[in-house]
Fold this protein.
Amino acid sequence: MRARYRFAEWALAAHSEVRFIGECLDCGERCVDTESADDAQGWCLKHAGLTGDRRFEMKGFQLFTAYLTNAAADGAPPAT
Ligand SMILES: [Zn+2]
């Protein structure tokens, strides 16, 4: 699936689905990024059980490439 957001003559092409990372704010350890928010939260709960740490943050991110929509040399979205 590809989403595009236009700003003037530029557009963005998404290169991935949204991914999530759970991070412990007490020790800085984090899980491997995952497509599942539930899996990232599950890692936080497991980490709390193992360490006693209690403060967590979950971050979501998605990769994009910006490209010019009206320039012949750079008009096509990059191949994914
Ligand atoms: Zn921790």
In short: Residues 37-51 form the longest helix (15 residues). Residues 21 and 55 are 14 Å apart (CA to CA).
